[in-house]
Amino acid sequence: MLVLLDNGHGGLINGNPQTGSRRSHKLPNGARLYEGEFNRAIVNGIIQELTFLNIPYVNITPEMRDVTRTTRIRRANAYKRVRNVFLISVHCNAGGGKGFEVFTSRGRTKSDLIANTFAQEFTKVFTDRRLRTDLSDGLLGKEANFDILKKTAMPAILTENFFFDNREEVENILMTREGRQNIVDFHVNAIVKVKEEIFMEAPVLLN
Ligand SMILES: [Zn+2]
Fold it and tell me: Which domain holds residue 136?
């Protein structure tokens, strides 16, 4: 199995946010959350754990600048002939809500099973936090017409990890070490489950 990782938007270059509009309120210490920084922190945390687990991955957007969606899709599709490949695009939500949601493209695909696994693993780590679902197909993921999900040639999901315009979530989860680690952990737990239960690959014995 190969995991393609995508961190949404641009990060910070020389202290300048590349997608400055996607930011939180000012915290008491003057810091802000920038979505592009957060997405990269989560992807880097996942990368560290996948390294320890000996699970192959490719970060398709290692740059700090905001890579266009067309380029992200082209980079992902370079791996379309790889067996058991799937893509995770990591984001943080806005719009005044709270909780976690995971998206797939429309229609019934393997992505729905992968998204369902991510949602289940979210609820195991964040037992008292809201999972935003759309149970129309009996699975826990939601559907959306996002290019990165629709135009990629392999199963693809997009995780929206809490809301950067929700003060409580920013201060208690998104801008805390424990909160970010928990987000990394449920992504990694889900990747391992996808490998064993959806792609049905036996675990590699590490010694
Ligand atoms: Zn985003």
Answer: 2-11+50-198
